[in-house]
Write a structure and sequence with these properties.
This protein has 7 helices and 19 strands. The protein has about 375 residues and is α+β, with helices and mostly antiparallel strands. The protein has 2 domains: about 5-50 and about 155-220 and about 325-380, 3-Layer(bba) Sandwich (FAD/NAD(P)-binding domain), CATH 3.50.50; about 95-145 and about 220-320, D-Amino Acid Oxidase, subunit A, domain 2 (D-Amino Acid Oxidase, Chain A, domain 2). Its cofactor is FAD.
């Protein structure tokens, strides 16, 4: 193993959505930062891929997310302006379900409480405005005009290039084997290519995070996820200007989808797909016929004009915390190590602000962002 002799202010493990943003924010503060990624930059082995990822201001998951998503929007716009990359697209968003269901009611409540511009639409009104939708008659929807999608690959490359321009070192295809605390309270990181020391460490390795920190065992659990793209009968109906991103609660489960972009098909997925907890180093990465059928049936039922030939299938991973909320903190026994984990299928939209938060935790040990509900101490009695 090669001794590099380099001492950094911060090493970031994982240069996907969260890690690339963290590296960027640290570098912009003038810190000497090294980002280490075991795969390519960007890559399709983890959670930070899939061509498009939903962003929405209407947020039913919890009110604590609203100030974070507001900041995320600002930072995505800043990154687009700085890099010239089309990292964010506004199409509008639909959150729909039966009255009383959290997808509809929670979205409406978040909009009302935070004065977010929105409309409440019946199923018939949704179809009249956006003909690609054929939702159940009893469904109600929150339409939020500022919803849309982030382009993950463009976002990662944009963050990395801007980080490098600010002086960061970023290494792809370099796998971290282990890290240890040094006698002076820093960290020593061993990879398959070298050894590095730093004052601080950030764990942003997605589905692999639990293998790098015992404190995350059982709290950041990888899950296999499959996405599908199906060709519409009339593609123009499903173009971004005519088809908002969507979250939908139906008897088959909770699903999400996006318009045509870079793949000639409407994209959709099911939250927690087939409930398969996996080892990220040993699981079925090829989509299977039953994966495709699950997604096709929902397309046929609620977006029938998009239920044409399969254009693409892709496997990725969720990483779930027990309560499906994020984990943003420093490790209890290693305050020099910050961690971002458990993004549970709704995290990428926040990557720009998560990077800012993790940079705060690494540089200052704390952050002004409201992250109390995301602290590790909520699991002090163990995962429920």
């Amino acid at each position: 193993m090669t001794e590099t002799g380099d001492r950094y202010d911060v090493v970031v493990i994982g240069v996907g959505g969260m890690g690339s943003a963290t590296t960027y924010h640290l570098a912009r503060r003038g810190l000497d930062v090294l980002g280490l990624e075991r795969y390519d930059i960007p890559h399709t082995m983890g959670s930070s891929h899939g061509i498009t990822r939903i962003i929405r201001r209407a947020y039913y998951e919890h009110p604590s997310y609203i100030p974070l998503v507001e900041r995320a929007y600002d930072l995505w716009d800043d990154l687009a302006a700085e890099t010239g990359r089309d990292v964010i697209h506004r199409t509008g968003s639909i959150d729909a379900g039966p009255e009383g269901n959290v997808v509809f009611e929670g979205s409406r409540r978040s909009c009302e409480q935070h004065d977010i511009p929105h409309e409440v639409l019946t199923s018939e009104e949704v179809t009249e405005r956006f003909p690609g939708y054929q939702l159940p008659e009893e469904h109600m929807a929150v339409y939020q005009p500022d919803g849309g999608f982030v382009v993950p690959e463009q976002a990662i490359v944009g963050h990395v290039e801007a980080a490098q321009a600010a002086g960061a070192d970023v290494h792809g295809r370099e796998q971290v084997h282990d890290w240890t605390e040094t006698p002076d309270g820093g960290v020593r990181v061993e990879t398959d290519r070298g050894t590095y020391e730093a004052d601080r460490l950030v764990l942003a390795a997605g589905a692999w995070n639990y293998k790098l920190a015992d404190a995350l065992e059982g709290l950041a659990v990888p899950e296999r996820q499959v996405l599908g793209w199906f060709q519409p009968e009339t593609p123009s109906t499903f173009e971004p200007e005519n088809f908002p991103v969507w979250n939908l609660r139906v008897p088959e489960g909770r699903f999400y989808g996006l318009p045509i972009y870079d793949v000639p098909g409407m994209k959709l997925g099911k939250y927690h797909h087939r409930d398969e907890q996996v080892d990220p180093d040993d699981y079925e990465t090829d989509p299977q016929p039953e994966d495709e059928q699950l997604l096709r049936e929902v397309t046929e039922n609620y977006f029938p004009e998009a239920a044409g030939p399969t254009m693409r299938l892709a496997t990725c991973m969720f990483t779930n915390s027990p309560d499906e909320h994020f984990i943003l903190d420093t490790l209890p026994d290693h305050p020099q190590v910050a961690v971002g984990a458990g993004f549970s299928g709704h995290g990428f939209k926040f990557a720009s602000v998560i990077g800012e938060i993790l940079a705060d935790l690494a540089a200052d040990g704390d952050t002004d962002h409201p992250i109390e509900m995301f602290r590790l101490e909520r699991f002090d009695d163990g995962p429920e």
